[in-house]
Amino acid sequence: DEDNYSDDCIWEDGSALEASSKKDSERGCLVDGISVELDISQEVSGKVPTRRASSEEKEIAELVHKTHLLCLLGRGRLMDSACDDPLIQASLLSLVPDHLFKTLQNPKLTSSCLSQLVGWFRNNFRVRSSNISERSCHSSLVSLLQTREGTPEAVAGLSVSLFRALNLAARFVSMLDVAPLKPEATKSNSMEKSMKRKGDIFSSPTLMIADPGLPSSDSISSESNIAVGKSIQYGWKNQDSCISNKRKDKMLDDPSVSGVPVDISESKRKGDVEFELQMEVALAATAIISSGSPNATTPPYKKLKRDFSNGLSTAMGSKKTGAPIYWSEVFCNGENLTGRWVHVDAVSAIVDGEGNVEAAAAACKKSLRYAVAFSGNGAKDVTRRYCVKWYKIASERVDSTWWDSVLAPLKELESGTTERSTRSSMEDSELVTRALTEPLPTNQQQAYRNHQLYAIERWIKKYEVLHPKEPVLGYCGGHPVYPRTCVQKLHTKEMWLREGLQVKAGESPAKVLYMMHSEAKRKQQPVDHDGNRRDEETTATALYGKWQTEPLRLPRAVDGIVPKNERGQVEVWSEKCIPPGTVHLRYPRIGGVARKLGIDFAPAMVGFEWRRGGGSVPVFDGIVLCSEFEDAVMEAYSEEEGRREGEEKRRREMDACRRWHQLLSSLATLRRLNCSYGDGKA
To answer: Which of 45, 366, 369, 458 could form a disulfide bond with 361, CB atoms 3.0-4.6 angstroms apart?
Structure first.
């Protein structure tokens, strides 16, 4: 067979070329222009196994989340304190034009009165490309005053300082971008990177609002064609690589860099290529703009950068400004009847745009989990004002009990004086109203599973039921929406007994669950007389609601006899489960004392303990006996414990004496041996 096989096959001698790159070695070898590629399918390679986070990892992630929250709260308080610096406020007031003071002299301040001031501030203080700052809060504000450029945090903080210098009630607001609460949430970083590679609209600066004073796109079309042609000549192609932020800043600030050809061997990312193309178009546009101003001394690229920052708004989704993480709030007493806090984003020159903060943060791949306002060296959570879709962030926030306890002392500092306390109470009412009037979500599966206000019967859990099914608040996908208060918990009769309740007579189950047996439970099924195992695959479990129960009525102890269950025990799940006329004594070894006295009692089973491989075992704690025997049993128990402690003390003394005798005997033997066979020294 082997000879026939070798005759049928034709073999040739050939030489394999060495792979010139890692990519060629993975795909195959090239011989005489022929490429052999191996396509390994997903089924052959297999899926990557997913691992669920352990309890320890979840605990560590929660601790990191809480620690990060505390650090960001401290950072916000430092910035709030720096905004109160009198020298910074005086420097800002010296820069404000006189006509802007007149717009703020209205006793009833409204959001429209702030527009001109915010526009002036936006034109004079800009955000630089690099948002990373290693300076302190005070140094950042001072540097921003000197250079007129700074981080978004410093720009927002300086706007708060300006408002306070003008005797306006202002707060510094920060969106706390904390570490994820759950370990699996850290996987979102790789997802964000992949989304950016697919052409995210926010991977490059997005010019939102055009200034009518700037030339139109038609006027610079010819120059842009020249720029594009130059880029093709220099070999700017879509290749995979990365370019540092320092190089981008250098292209903006150094005119010699923009005209230098790029080395083709240096690979580039698609987003970097687009950025460089935009730079060429921008430089061409600058040439046209600067041609009409012969007295201009500013370099063209600098002029373009300034004109674009003044004439165009990169408010939402800008690569330069990023997500709206920092802004300010100004209290306008002319808004509504009692006044309200108005959102002011000095970074983007937006006034009263609180409804767009959540959408802008989501567009920049940020989650609006915490929005905290800082004032008077205190802090207050104002997330409800800016977050409309609360159901999306509820699972990403820390436990409300811990969070409220952390903010309680800071909230008192933020309230401060009587006037501020009144504003704070009105704001609390506003936030509660927003929480209770949240609009109906449109996503059934994600929104209504654990929504705090609304529920759909389709998405309630198996141990829940809607009762009563009214009122209907609306419809979502043809399903009626009910208040969350209509969702009732269901338990079995045994579980209701543990809470001191019993099902009323004649009540039919509110729901019946049919559960499948596992393979292990099927093996435990009884065997009939023929030796065949009866496969009872399903078990019906009757569930009842709280409206079908009543207080537990247990039999009373009569003639010193404790009522027991079929196992001779008393199930003490709570104090309500103790039979009338009896008492629960939770002392060790007290059962033996009652047995010696001949008093009837029952062991108290307080729960179950789960063990590995052994299932659940009952846990006993003390005994239950009639209340008339309590004093006699306790007196005998005290005497018994005193006698037991005395015996234990004597046993310890005898053991100590035995050990001392053994030690001294060993020392005497050692001394005798040294005297007889040693040098005679002890």
So the answer is: 366
Q: How far apart are CA 131 and CA 177, in angstroms?
A: 14
**DSSP summary character for residue 558:** B
Is the sign of the CA dihedral 26, 31, 35, 36 positive or negative? negative
Residue spans of the chain under pLDDT 70: 1-50, 129-134, 184-323, 417-418, 444-446, 516-538, 614, 680-682
CA distances from 75 to 54, 72, 674 (A): 32, 5, 74
The first and second tokens of residue 475, run together, are 């419809």
> Which CATH architecture does the domain made up of 554-670 adopt?
2-Layer Sandwich (3.30)
479-499 pLDDT, tens digit each: 899 999 999 999 999 889 888
Region of residue 523 (left: phi > 0; alpha: psi -120 to 50; beta: else)? alpha
CATH label, 55-181+322-437, candidates 3.40.1080.10, 3.40.50.720, 3.30.70.100, 3.90.260.10: 3.90.260.10
Cβ(573)–Cβ(498) below 8 Å? yes
**How confident is the model at residue 31, as a pLDDT?**
47
CB 546 within 8 A of CB 495: no
Residue type at 425? Answer: S
Q: Give pTM, 2 decimals.
A: 0.59
For residue 203 the two structure tokens come to 């991977």
Joined tokens for residue 483: 């208040």
Contacts of 663 by beta carbon, 8 Å cutoff, 6+ apart: none
Decide: 664 and 621 in contact? Cβ < 8 Å: no
E-assigned strand segments in 556-663: 570-571, 582-585, 601-611, 615-626
- Per-residue confidence (pLDDT) for residue 160, from 0 to 100: 95
> Residue 371: how many CA atoms within 13 Å on its side-chain side?
26
CA–CA separation, 403 and 395 (whole Å) = 14
273 token code pair: 């290529």
For residue 287, give both structure tokens.
């040439």
Which residue is listed with tokens 């489960």? 577
* Per-residue CA distances from 513 to 107, 505, 544 (Å): 66, 21, 11
